[in-house]
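Notebook, bench 3.
Goal today: get a predicted structure for histidine kinase from Duganella flavida so we can plan the truncation constructs. The sequence was checked against the plasmid map this morning, with no discrepancies at the termini. Length recorded as 539 residues. Pasting the sequence as submitted so the record is complete.
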Amino acid sequence: MPKLDNPKILVVNDDANSLFALTSLLAQWAEQEGYEVLSAPSGQDALRQVLMHDFAVILLDVNMPGMDGFETAAAIHARARSADIPIIFITAFLADELDRLKAYQHGAVDFLFTPVIPQILYAKISVFVALAMKNEELKQQARQLSLRTTELIATNKHLTREIAERKTVERQNHAKDEFLAMLGHELRNPLSAISSAASLIGLPGVSLDGVQRAKKIIQRQSQHLGRIVDDLLDLSRAMSGKILLSRAPLELSTLIAQTLETYRATGRSTDYELDQDLMPGWVDGDSTRLEQITSNLIDNALKYTPPGGRIAVRTWTEHDDVVLSVSDTGVGISAELLPHVFDVFVQGSRTLDRAQGGLGIGLSLVRRLAELHGGSIAAESAGAQQGSTFTLRLPRINHQLEAPAATPQLGTHGKPRVLLIEDNEDGREMMTMMLGGYGYDVQSAADGLQGLDAARTHQPDLALVDIGLPGIDGYEVARRLRADAATSGIKLVALTGYGLADDLRRVMEAGFDRHLVKPVDIDQLMEVIDSCARVPVKQ
């Protein structure tokens, strides 16, 4: 503990001889008792000293000209910092009871009468000096205790924060482990089905019907694998901010009505009561990504609602927002899970029926896509078995419907001539056969240089170009085709396994008209070929 400052004693007396006598008498004990002695010749000087120092006791003469002892005592005790300083009045006459009362009312603790008896003075002063030293010691202990308490509180907060962070990391690691185990399960199921179906096709004695069923299984499970890969890539792109939105004014209720019609047409909602109440509202958004949000919310409702349950989809406008809500009568969300339903790698109870599959990352993707649109998503549930409601809010825009454009006419050919530039032999063969089966005249090339020669020789209407070609890549193929007057009018569609925003930018800068990410869905490919055949070539 730091060394304590010596207590101070103040002697106040207007008589110089009396002041000298008292201070000298006190000084002879100062070193022994460990105190300092200060003096003041008037009440005003005493107040100045009190402003500068703390005193263990003040010896105050009663009879002083100008400001007497009582007035000086009152002024000292009127100040909060010096209100508790004990004052011993010194007087030359024996005070009567009224004088004593007046002195005590002004803060006196005792009286000394002149001539002062040294032994009595020493006894009284010693008590107040010891008391002051004890008080100062207690104050220092209190300061040390307060400092230690502050340090302990800070340490406790730090430890609490570390424990919370460690629990969060452990929870995330556990969730990731479960996610990876689930991912392995989701990948092995379709791969096992594909492997079994491929083996079945090669067995002797398999009926034609069995071969057809095996082919359908391979096709269906391949699409399922593609959806899993798409989910993973979309989430990765969304979390890293690399999704590039193709935004345009669109009427949200129309898009949602089309999505719901797809669910009904494909039979995915057959076992449920699917209600809709859609009010119009315009937003500036990417139709593909908004349909993805809607589908994920509806898929989530279907997954966690038992057959026979009700799913309600509503849209309306509210202030500056267009609002979409998807409500269900399903298993609900517990209070513990509710704040985390949009976190990555978080799912509901693993005991739920997961027959429909999926990775459980759809809601994380929904939140990120909503944020990229400048909107928000919220979840509500009254608890287990109480159903849930997800509410999407997007900024509303004012939009005037434009006059319908004239219907574009098809080119002179019935179907466009297609050039496929693909280095993977199996992929090239399969796509050539598939396009041929749809009635397209298809030429193919195995690398970029062969593709350039084929384009000049056959003059196709449209070229499907793989980006990762040997020799010169697809970007260079596009640039050379656009630079040659003989081939500059060919529509160019990029086929690539890369789907990040930067990849799309490079594709469009190279001169392509469209960008498709492998594996390409045949219906999507037909739509792209048809749309490219209907519009003028990009300049």
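The domain at 418-534 is CATH 3.40.50.2300 (Rossmann fold). The longest helix spans residues 118-202.
Flagging this for group meeting.
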